Amino acid sequence: MRWLRLLLLLLLVPLAACATNGAPATYLVEVKGPYTLDTGDVVRVSVYGEAELTKSYKVDDGGAVAMPLIGAVKVRGKTTQQAAAAITAALAAGYIREPSVAVEIDTYRPFFIQGAVKTGGQFPYVYGMSVRAAISTAGGYSETADRSRAVVYRRQGNQMVKGIVNLDFPIYPGDTIVISERWL
Fold first, then answer.
1. Under DSSP, is residue 165 helix (H, G, I), strand (E, B) or coil?
2. What Rg, from alpha-carbon coordinates, does the chain have?
């Protein structure tokens, strides 16, 4: 009898460990790296001593911000520090002597959620959001939702990549989240 219990314990413990491992195998979408600007972001540009240039600008479809004096400056794919450097260089090219420019995010571009949620669509991004927070923003799950995972589509360079993720996975502005339906 004692041997039987020991045998059952040795067989069931590894299986129990497999059953509780709910983590997705791998993430194809990147979760690290500095935030880069893209269409839909609104940036606050501060030019020291130039009140008429200091305001918020929206990144247009071409990935640029249009400012007085210098026109469109490409900022798509750049960090806020790189965007500040590009604007500084444009202003220094004959408009302002030794400009001091700072760029910060005013409003992030939205994220998108669809599938088995109550209200799918486009929603404003809040820094530090997870898939779980995005689902809450969309009104929660529908009755038939798969509540254990989600699919995130994210642009990485010139590619759109897909990853099956858990609910605590961080999302970024511009991400598309798809909640699948569960099959009974």
1. strand
2. 23
Q: How far apart are CA 125 and CA 120, in angstroms?
A: 14
Kindly list the distances between the CA atom of residue 150 and the CA atoms of 38, 99, 126, 155, 177, in Å, as whole numbers in the listed order: 24, 46, 19, 17, 7
- Cross-strand partners of 113: 121, 177
Q: Given CA atoms 82, 56, 76, 174 in this order, what sign does their dihedral have?
A: positive
Query: What are the pLDDT digits (tens) for 80-136?
Result: 999 999 999 999 998 899 999 999 999 999 999 999 999 999 999 998 899 999 999
Are 42 and 60 in contact, with CB atoms under 8 Å apart? Answer: no
178: CB partners within 8 A, 6+ apart: 113, 114, 115, 150, 151, 152, 153
CA 30, CA 107: separation in Å to the nearest integer? 22
pTM here is 0.73
Nearest CA to 64 out of 83, 44, 89 is that of 83
H/E/C letters for each residue in 58-124? ECCCCCEEEECCCEEEECCCCCHHHHHHHHHHHHHCCCCCCCCEEEEEEECCCEEEEECECCCEEEC
What sign does the CA torsion over 144, 145, 148, 153 have? Answer: positive
